[in-house]
């Protein structure tokens, strides 16, 4: 986990640990009070990265409720999720530029309330599309079967007429 201020346990990882002899701060604690330590770099687990990447595939921007939900699911802070998403979008845009595509951009201005679909809404829409595709396929299959049946019936009728003559 990350720390927002220096502590003795975090002092070895801190950029403030090396104070020059000529420093006006003779006491390390006084120096720490005047300047805060940088956060240590978050190292995400493989499972957390997979969860983040999977969600990013379907949602390039997270609403606050989605960010809260994802943070709870992956056991990360909202700030960590927000920062990861910002960095990942920049990587995504750079990749698009390298492929000579137009850079994907966020719509201008503040989004209207509920204009960004939630993860649940995206999943619901995906399920609706899947159900529609299954229904369409079933209709095509039944249409094909009925056409096959009508061909078979007409063949039987023709055979019966031939046998009758």
TrEMBL record:
The entry's keywords: DNA-binding, Homeobox, Nucleus
Subcellular location(s) of the protein: Nucleus
GO MF annotation terms: DNA binding; DNA-binding transcription factor activity, RNA polymerase II-specific
InterPro entries: HD, HD_metazoa, Homeobox_CS, Homeobox_TF, Homeodomain-like_sf
Domain Homeobox: 35-95
Record bears the keyword Acyltransferase: no
Residues of the DNA-binding region: 37-96
Cited Pfam families: Homeodomain (PF00046)
Top-level taxon of origin: Eukaryota
Any one GO CC term of the record: nucleus
Protein's UniProt keywords contain DNA-binding: yes
PANTHER family referenced in this protein's UniProt entry, alphabetically: HOMEO BOX HB9 LIKE A-RELATED, HOMEOBOX PROTEIN BARH-LIKE 1B
Protein name, UniProt field: Homeobox domain-containing protein
Lineage of origin: Eukaryota, Metazoa, Spiralia, Gnathifera, Rotifera
């Amino acid at each position: 986990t990350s720390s927002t201020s220096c502590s003795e346990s975090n002092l070895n990882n801190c950029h403030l640990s090396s104070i020059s002899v000529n420093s006006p701060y003779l006491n390390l604690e006084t120096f720490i009070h005047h300047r805060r330590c940088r956060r240590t770099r978050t190292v995400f687990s493989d499972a957390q990265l997979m969860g983040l990447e999977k969600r990013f595939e379907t949602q390039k921007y997270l609403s606050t409720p989605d960010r809260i939900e994802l943070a709870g699911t992956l056991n990360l802070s909202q700030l960590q999720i927000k920062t990861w998403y910002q960095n990942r979008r920049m990587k995504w845009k750079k990749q698009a530029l390298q492929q000579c595509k137009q850079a994907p951009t966020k719509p201008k201005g503040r989004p209207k309330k509920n204009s960004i679909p939630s993860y649940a809404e995206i999943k619901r829409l995906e399920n609706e599309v899947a159900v529609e595709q299954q229904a369409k396929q079933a209709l095509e299959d039944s249409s094909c079967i009925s056409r096959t049946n009508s061909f078979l019936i007409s063949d039987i009728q023709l055979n019966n007429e031939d046998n009758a003559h």
